[in-house]
Fold this protein.
Amino acid sequence: MQNIVTLGILSNERRVRTMLKKMALKLALRHWKKGGFSVVFWDGEEEDYGDTSPSFKIIFRKEPPLKLNSQDIILTMGEAYMDGIIDFEGSMDDIMRVVALNTQSDQLQNYDTSLVDAPDCKRQQQNIHHHYDLGNNFFSLWLDKTMCYSCAYFLTLEDSLEQAQLQKIDHILKKLNLKPGESLLDIGCGWGWLIIRAAQQYRVKATGITLSTEQYNAVTARIKKLGLEDQLQVKLINYLELDSTKLQFDKIVSVGMFEHVGKGNLGRYMNKVNELLVSGGTSLLHTITGTFETPANTWIAKYIFPGGYAPSMRETVWLLPQYDFHLIHAESLRLHYAMTLDCWYTNFSKHLDTIRDMFDERFIRMWSLYLRGCAAAFRTSGLDIYQLLFTKGLNNDLPLTNAYMYNKCD
């Protein structure tokens, strides 16, 4: 009899916990009043949310654990997807559109810029290691042969990923208006194809720097294999540690690195470029931008890019005059990045068994959500990516028009 009573009490406790969890989730979801979606809970109950007809569905495959954090619905849903607790039915574009509609104003209102984080060199190294040192074998499965892990540049909808990445590199090098014998610095050089292309096509001397050990080893091997040691060098170093009394560059480029310095370090980046760039020199900044000065969503910050921050376009441009930088060209590649991410996800999906052996199912779901979600965010949320070209001081020797930037890529 005592056992029966105990089982009954435990059963009642479980029912109460389940009810409380569902109530907490419902309260959280009801804050999302824009757009429309439906939720199928683990007991079969279905409920609609928002102010329009549902465009997608969230399905709970099982009851979530007690650690459920209903105060942060983005982190909660991201972790639940990773753990196989929920699945989505519908377009990822519709999902990200609703997320953006319901979170952007809250993020802006609650973002205290007086408490901005400025990661030091050691923490920047750790943040880069978290993402970029997952292994060259992993990235080579779904990137193209250039190993470019940044937005490509599609001249037509039929371009292959590799073709579009080479076009992106050529587009950047054309904008920099490189001349033989000039010196080029690539801050965050990735796997090195940009400095290699610059050396081969423009006969410049280029230096690449990275915080990723995996990337450093790969670039070093590439340079040696191609016999370009006299023109190229790569350093495993933080850009802030470069000594401007010993190093000066005619041109400086940074592709997909500015997003990793942290909001508190945006000015430090600009100041360092100013120190390293010769008077009249040209720099190109290729960076993701947000609409407002808001932090990365908590799921991205925890699992994908710790320490990352996509600056707004206005705060980035606002910084330029402080360092005597003169903006001469700005170009949005927003849809190009959505297409790039779509290509990466397609390639990623072709190697799930191999990736599962490298990591696990949770990792696959995490990276699938990251690649698909980011592609959708570029299409629907106002997330953008810009190439900003600027000079240090006035430069009256630039081409009279921008036609040279858009000549057909070789």
In short: DSSP finds 14 helices and eleven strands in the chain.
